[in-house]
């Protein structure tokens, strides 16, 4: 028999009893980041491949929506910071070994490119908005309108950049996690491709939802079908990879194979988020019906979020250490919430 | 690099947790939080038993993944040594370093939000003093010093006695050693 | 940030926190960054009071803020290192539940309660009632139950008043049997600190003594020295204690059978002639009687009783004899176990005597205290009746007043004692079975005064509760314990007393003044006494304030020389292997083994002891130590846990053989306890609501001790004859 206990109490909030430093904020950011990446890639692709007219949503509207979603994602990222006042420090420094640092800088590059892409698509995608912006006092005619014009003219290079950065952003969301050797569940090279494919898939799903034409819906339906198959394959490989990994990885993957995250992973992510959309989108192949397409896309988006959520939650709980508090760590809350100021009593 | 190491003798360590206590006092660690902890491992069946106590903390890794993961440079090596510290004026509380530490040695300081951890008591080490936990250990089970110096206490102990580090497979090159 | 601000941690989500960290956080450096350039703290000399080991220490303050307490470098007790509890002494100062005002029991509308009183009123009530007791019955009817170094002020007060009935739980609840047993054998008890020369020992034998968990500072340090020196360590303990884990030879003895083992060891040593014949011939009497007596007690004889393999008994006997006289037979400290404790101590002393370790290097060194003259004061009056008159009738060989005898003589209308002064002892948890008696006594007594630092259980029985300030805020007498090198240490105040709390010396003096014995308290400040004493030995308060300690040269040797005939202080002048004193008093002259009572089926022996994070029942509410160990656990062996369906980390209640039910206590299922016993750390399960952190946390071993095995020789309260079974507690 082997018994391992802590002789003192370890109850650092967020770290013990189980590591839980990142919550919905990070899952949401990773999801929205991936989604925005997908939107950028497909939008750029429709522009470069000359499909813009047949895929009006993807070409003209998606960039602005991506911009907004990415903004929201950055917002949740900010919410997660424990010391928000120092947020600017991300941009005082590029730490080449830190994926978090790369991510911060990628965002700084993605954001303007996405914004310019959005501007390029504005006259066709959101004419009322383009008009409104153009009528803004002073900067409207002098800056906005010429800028929109300029963006329209350099749209192809922008689209090219957008694809490149989109792929970067998509992979980054996975690499961020997989770079943590300390968390066995994250430590897989498959996480980058998996998150990229998932990001593309959610991007495609949003394209289906917003599709301006039947052809556009069909196109992205087929693309998404392929991506879902790819994602299933990657997930399968990921689980196999973990099962064949070291003891730590085997016990890590147990979290989704019978452990605490099993239901969310299998019923939520694989079932609702991948399998059902797979069937639905396959059905769309021969008979496109708006409600089916809509349901499929919503489920894919849900699945995309669940993937991030399960990954973030589970990964944190998997660790090299195993601390077993013998004393009830909850008792320390008595000290922390006591709120009694000893000096106040005298 | 100035290479500091801590060497802890599990033969004499009695698991009293004085090291945890002294660290809290010395470093004004807020109520309920800690930078170090003591693990007790019992093996066997009554009456064939062994118990080992191990005082654990940040390993001040030579290859610290918390430092590499930090986006702002807040997590850093102190003064060209392997002592890993967090500059609170640069820390965003993004927690990448917590996720990156295989030893779960970091924590969020409450309520300030910067990342706290064992500092090897640099404020003492800068004057050549032992860290507070080392200086308090009633069993004299803890030792601190320079690995670059082959005549130092820690170098000698490591040369003479069988020892191990925690999870060397992490590749972090931990610098807290345990004597068997 | 203030360390002790009891900040709210979990409540920091939400807007105010966000705003706070946005506004306040930006340039604020980390604590270590602040400390890199922090100015040095002020240091004040003190002596730790979290237990009675009395380690010299330094208190570090920054302005009015107490930062930390560290050991006084060079001090033989602390060696510059305080133990876990001493380091946590900071919490004794900051504890928000401390007593800071005198309290008087009053009855309003038929309801009793405590009301805050002025010092003048509280002291007035004490003086008035004590004067009445003195007039009606005599001052000898005041009994004092005191403990700790601060007790000296109240011992002085009591003796000046005219009473010598002053008992400490250190005798009948702690060291009494050991000191009696060693006194009967060597003519001297064991001192505190125990004179065990473990640093130089080649073999250390621990019988029960759970060093490591029992965290008496220099004991643990020298024990670690023995480990480092590869000394042979033999631990006799039914539980796999920390010390057992450090031993090459752990003898997992069946509880209560140590005398059988000791007799078997003696048997082997005599049968195999493993002792120094010349030494024994010159320094002992009674060898023939002993040899004849132990002849049948072979290891094979001891096996069924102790459960220890004969081979293991033989091997360990040979090892300790081979290392002798550099062998420490640790005399133990908390020795009130099974009621035959003086005899067990005798058996240990006989073993030690045969091995010739008294006064030997690596055995028991000869400790020496410094010679510090007493402050000149009038002679104490001779009390009308002495504690001896009452105690010795019951326990003929008690060398000191017995707490239980005092309480027993404070019960009922015709009780001998009429007033009780309690200082620094928490009787309800210290003396098992005392709660009801205290309750009864409180009906007959004219006055109960409790002087404490926190609202402990004992204060609930008092008429007057006086708040003493903590040791960090007061002067006490110089520490002058016998040591390897005579060394004194100063306790001086590092901070002003919190609230209206006062130092013990002030309280004693004020009571003395009101009782008309002001002559015995001629000082304005106790510092004068300390300074006067120091000046007699060529030092001064000034000096000790900065140095904290001072050594004096030895005037006697540390060890006896080899071949020396030692002048023992026994009636025969020799080590009494056979004790005529015991025989004459009607007891066994050589220890006899009687098997302990067996447990009823389904019941388990209640074993108890120390944890390194706490002292007795005094530290559970200390916010610093609470963080290390907020509750006690009940250790249960896996087979028993399985049998009862009990799981680790669940909460259960313990029910003892008389149906007493404990508070809920968390389970630790572990191989480290014997299947027939459970283990509980003493001091938890507080019932005093004023101790907000400790109240209701864990189980109280004392409450489960309803079968007390009094030692007929000296009155010790044997605590180990109790058994428990389990009841699942509501979550
Ligand atoms: N941390 C800490 N340290 C302390 C104290 C404290 O409060 N806290 N108090 C101090 C004081 S005043 C004292 S008196 C000492 C007490 O400490 P000790 O003198 O060491 O107390 P013991 O009762 O000898 O030791 C308890 C051990 O005896 C074992 N035991 C139980 N029954 C038997 C038996 O029948 N035979 C044998 N051989 N062993 C048995 C138990 O399993 C346990 O390991 O500790 C001192 N040190
Ligand atoms: N059940 C059981 N009973 C035991 C033991 C056991 O292991 N189990 N151990 C026994 C042993 S070995 C011993 S030595 C005794 C110890 O018995 P006690 O000396 O009674 O020890 P504590 O329980 O710590 O109670 C100390 C009291 O003094 C108060 N106090 C603390 N500091 C100060 C101070 O500076 N000034 C004043 N005025 N008061 C102060 C505390 O608040 C507390 O109320 O207990 C014995 N009783
Ligand atoms: S202070 Fe020393 S003996 Fe105590 S737990 Fe820490 S390392 Fe071990
Ligand atoms: S133990 Fe963790 S926190 Fe410490 S240096 Fe290594 S990686 Fe960093
Ligand atoms: S939380 Fe602070 S120290 Fe840790 S990685 Fe982020 S910025 Fe660096
Ligand atoms: S080295 Fe200093 S900071 Fe680190 S655990 Fe020890 S006392 Fe704490
Ligand atoms: S042994 Fe520990 S608690 Fe006791 S006096 Fe020394 S430091 Fe204080
Ligand atoms: Mo004791």
Summed up:
The complex is a heterotrimer of chains A (346), B (180) and C (731). Chain A is an all-alpha fold and 346 residues long.
Give the helices and strands, then pairings.
The complex is a heterotrimer of chains A (346), B (180) and C (731).
Chain A: E1 2-6, H1 24-48, H2 56-80, H3 99-125, H4 127-134, H5 139-153, H6 155-178, H7 191-210, H8 214-243, H9 247-253, H10 262-286, H11 290-317, H12 333-338
Helix pairs in contact in A: 1-2, 1-6, 1-7, 1-11, 2-3, 3-4, 3-5, 3-6, 4-5, 6-7, 7-8, 7-11, 8-10, 10-11
Chain B: E1 4-9, H1 18-26, E2 37-45, E3 48-56, H2 65-69, E4 75-77, E5 84-86, H3 96-100, E6 106-108, E7 115-117, H4 122-125, H5 132-136, E8 142-146, H6 153-160, E9 163-164, E10 176-179
Parallel strand pairs in B: 1-10
Antiparallel strand pairs in B: 1-8, 2-3, 4-5, 6-7, 9-10
Chain C: H1 15-24, H2 31-36, E1 42-47, E2 56-62, E3 65-71, H3 84-87, H4 90-94, E4 103-108, E5 111-116, H5 119-136, E6 142-146, H6 152-161, E7 166-167, H7 169-186, E8 203-207, H8 217-228, E9 232-236, H9 242-245, E10 249-251, H10 258-271, H11 277-283, E11 284-285, H12 287-294, H13 299-306, H14 310-323, E12 327-329, H15 341-355, H16 387-394, H17 403-408, E13 419-423, H18 427-430, H19 434-444, E14 447-452, E15 464-467, E16 487-489, H20 504-514, H21 526-536, H22 541-547, E17 549-551, E18 575-576, H23 580-584, E19 604-609, H24 623-628, E20 633-636, H25 638-644, E21 651-656, E22 665-669, E23 677-681, E24 709-710, E25 717-718, E26 723-728
Parallel strand pairs in C: 6-7, 6-13, 8-9, 8-12, 9-10, 11-18, 13-14, 14-15, 19-23, 20-22
Antiparallel strand pairs in C: 1-2, 2-3, 4-5, 4-15, 16-17, 19-26, 20-23, 21-22, 21-26, 24-25
Helix pairs in contact in C: 5-20, 6-20, 7-15, 10-13, 10-14, 10-15, 13-14
The complex binds ligand MGD (2 copies), iron/sulfur cluster (5 copies) and molybdenum atom.
């Amino acid at each position: 028999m082997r018994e391992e206990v802590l002789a003192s109490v370890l109850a650092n909030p967020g770290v013990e009893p189980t590591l839980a430093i990142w919550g919905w904020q990070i899952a949401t950011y990773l999801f929205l980041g991936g989604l925005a990446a997908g939107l950028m890639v497909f939008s750029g692709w429709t522009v470069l491949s000359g499909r813009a007219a047949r895929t009006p949503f993807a070409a003209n509207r998606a960039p602005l929506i991506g911009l907004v979603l990415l903004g929201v994602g950055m917002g949740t990222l900010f919410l997660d910071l424990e010391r928000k006042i120092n947020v600017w420090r991300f941009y005082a420094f590029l730490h080449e070994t830190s994926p978090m640092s790369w991510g911060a800088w990628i965002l700084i590059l993605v954001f303007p490119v996405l914004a310019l892409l959005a501007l390029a698509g504005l006259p066709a995608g959101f004419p009322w908005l383009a008009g409104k912006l153009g009528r803004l006092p002073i900067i409207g005619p002098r800056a906005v309108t010429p800028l929109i014009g300029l963006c329209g003219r350099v749209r192809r290079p922008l689209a090219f950049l957008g694809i490149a950065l989109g792929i970067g952003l998509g992979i980054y969301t996975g690499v961020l996690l997989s770079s943590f050797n300390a968390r066995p569940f994250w430590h897989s090279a498959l996480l980058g491709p998996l998150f990229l494919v998932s990001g593309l898939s959610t991007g495609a799903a949003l394209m289906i939802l917003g599709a301006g034409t039947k052809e556009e819906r069909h196109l992205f339906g087929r693309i998404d079908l392929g991506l879902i198959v790819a994602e299933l394959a990657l997930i399968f490989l990921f689980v196999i990879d973990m099962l064949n990994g070291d003891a730590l990885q085997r016990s890590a993957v147990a979290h989704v194979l019978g452990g605490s995250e099993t239901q969310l992973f299998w019923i939520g992510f694989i079932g609702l988020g991948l399998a059902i959309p797979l069937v639905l989108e396959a059905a769309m192949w021969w008979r496109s019906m708006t409600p089916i397409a809509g349901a499929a896309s919503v489920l894919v988006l849900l699945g995309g979020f669940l993937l991030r959520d399960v990954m973030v939650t589970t990964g944190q709980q998997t660790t090299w250490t195993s601390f077993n508090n013998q004393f009830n760590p909850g008792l320390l809350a008595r000290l922390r919430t006591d709120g009694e100021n000893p000096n106040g009593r005298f | 690099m100035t290479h500091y190491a801590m060497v802890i003798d599990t033969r004499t360590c009695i698991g009293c947790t004085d090291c945890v206590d002294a660290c809290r006092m010395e470093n004004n660690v807020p109520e309920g939080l800690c930078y170090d902890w003591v693990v007790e491992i019992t093996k066997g069946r009554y009456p064939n038993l062994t118990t080992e106590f191990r005082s654990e903390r940040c390993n001040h890794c030579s290859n610290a993944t918390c430092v590499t993961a930090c986006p702002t440079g807040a997590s850093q090596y102190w003064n060209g040594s392997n002592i890993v510290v967090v500059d609170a004026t640069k820390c965003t509380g993004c927690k990448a370093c917590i996720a990156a530490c295989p030893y779960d040695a970091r924590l969020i300081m409450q309520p300030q939000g910067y990342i706290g951890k064992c500092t090897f008591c640099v404020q003492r080490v800068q004057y050549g003093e032992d860290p507070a936990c080392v200086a308090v250990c009633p069993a004299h089970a803890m030792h601190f010093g320079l690995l670059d110096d082959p005549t130092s206490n820690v170098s000698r102990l490591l040369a003479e006695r069988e020892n191990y580090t925690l999870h060397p497979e992490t590749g972090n090159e931990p610098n807290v050693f345990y004597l068997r | 940030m203030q360390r002790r601000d009891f900040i709210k941690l979990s409540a920091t989500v939400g807007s105010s926190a966000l705003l706070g960290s946005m506004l306040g956080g930006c340039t604020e450096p980390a604590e270590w960054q602040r400390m890199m350039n922090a100015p040095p703290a002020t240091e004040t000399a003190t002596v730790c009071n979290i237990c009675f080991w009395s380690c010299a220490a330094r208190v570090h303050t920054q302005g009015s803020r107490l930062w930390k307490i560290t050991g006084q470098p060079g001090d033989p007790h602390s060696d510059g290192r305080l133990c876990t509890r001493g380091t946590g002494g900071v919490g004794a100062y900051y504890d928000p539940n401390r007593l800071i005002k005198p309290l008087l029991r009053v009855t309003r509308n038929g309801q009793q309660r405590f009301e805050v009183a002025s010092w003048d009123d509280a002291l007035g009530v004490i003086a008035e009632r004590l004067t009445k007791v003195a007039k009606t019955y005599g001052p000898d009817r005041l009994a004092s139950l005191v403990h700790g170094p601060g007790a000296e002020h109240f011992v002085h007060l009591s003796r000046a008043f005219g009473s010598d009935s002053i008992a400490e739980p250190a005798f009948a609840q702690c060291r009494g049997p050991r000191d009696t047993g060693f006194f009967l054998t060597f003519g001297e008890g064991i001192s505190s600190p125990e004179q065990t020369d473990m640093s130089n020992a080649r073999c250390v034998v621990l019988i029960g003594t759970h060093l490591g968990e029992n965290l008496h500072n220099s004991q643990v340090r020298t024990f670690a020295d023995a480990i480092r020196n590869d000394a042979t360590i033999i631990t006799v303990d039914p539980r796999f204690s920390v010390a057992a884990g450090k031993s090459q030879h752990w003898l997992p003895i069946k509880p209560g059978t140590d005398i059988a083992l000791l007799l078997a060891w003696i048997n082997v040593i005599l049968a195999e002639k493993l002792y120094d014949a010349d030494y024994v011939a010159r320094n002992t009497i009674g060898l023939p009687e002993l040899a004849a007596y132990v002849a049948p007690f072979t290891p094979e004889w001891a096996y069924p009783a102790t459960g220890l393999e004969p081979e293991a008994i033989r091997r360990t006997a040979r090892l300790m004899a081979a290392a002798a006289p550099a062998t420490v037979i640790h005399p133990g400290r908390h020795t009130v176990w099974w009621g035959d404790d003086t005899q067990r101590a005798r058996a240990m002393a006989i073993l030690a005597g045969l091995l010739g370790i008294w006064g030997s290097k690596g055995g028991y060194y000869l400790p020496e205290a410094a010679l510090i003259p007493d402050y000149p004061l009038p002679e104490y009056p001779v009390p009308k009746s002495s504690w001896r008159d009452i105690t010795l009738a019951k326990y003929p060989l008690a060398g000191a007043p017995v707490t239980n005898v005092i309480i027993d003589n404070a019960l009922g209308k015709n009780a001998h004692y009429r007033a009780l002064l309690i200082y620094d002892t928490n009787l309800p948890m210290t003396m098992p079975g005392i709660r009801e008696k205290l309750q009864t006594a409180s009906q007959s007594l004219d006055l109960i005064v409790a002087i404490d630092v926190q609202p402990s259980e004992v204060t609930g029985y008092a008429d007057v509760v006086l708040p003493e300030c903590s040791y960090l805020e007061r002067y006490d007498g110089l520490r002058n314990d016998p040591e390897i090198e005579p060394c004194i240490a100063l306790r001086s105040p590092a901070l002003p007393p919190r609230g209206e709390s006062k130092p013990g010396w002030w309280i004693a003096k004020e009571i003395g003044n009101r009782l008309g014995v002001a002559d015995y308290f001629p000082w304005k400040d106790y510092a004068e006494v300390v300074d006067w004493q120091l000046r007699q030995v060529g030092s001064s308060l000034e000096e000790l304030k900065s140095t904290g300690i001072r050594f004096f040269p030895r005037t006697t040797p540390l060890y006896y020389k080899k071949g020396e005939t030692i002048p023992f202080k026994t009636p025969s002048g020799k080590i009494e292997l056979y004790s005529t004193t015991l025989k004459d008093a009607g007891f066994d002259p050589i220890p006899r083994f009687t098997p302990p009572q067996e447990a009823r089926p389904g019941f388990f022996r209640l074993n108890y002891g120390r944890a390194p994070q706490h002292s007795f029942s005094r530290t559970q509410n200390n916010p610093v130590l609470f963080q290390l160990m907020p509750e006690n656990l009940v250790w249960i062996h896996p087979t028993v846990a399985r049998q009862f369906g009990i799981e680790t980390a669940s909460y259960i209640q313990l029910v003892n053989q008389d149906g007493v039910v404990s508070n809920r206590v968390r389970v630790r299922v572990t191989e480290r306890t014997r299947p027939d016993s459970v283990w509980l750390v003493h001091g938890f399960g507080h019932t005093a609501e004023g101790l907000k952190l400790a109240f209701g946390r864990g189980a109280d071993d004392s409450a489960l001790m309803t079968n007390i095995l009094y030692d007929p020789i000296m009155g010790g309260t044997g605590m180990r004859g109790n058994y428990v079974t389990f009841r699942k507690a509501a979550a």
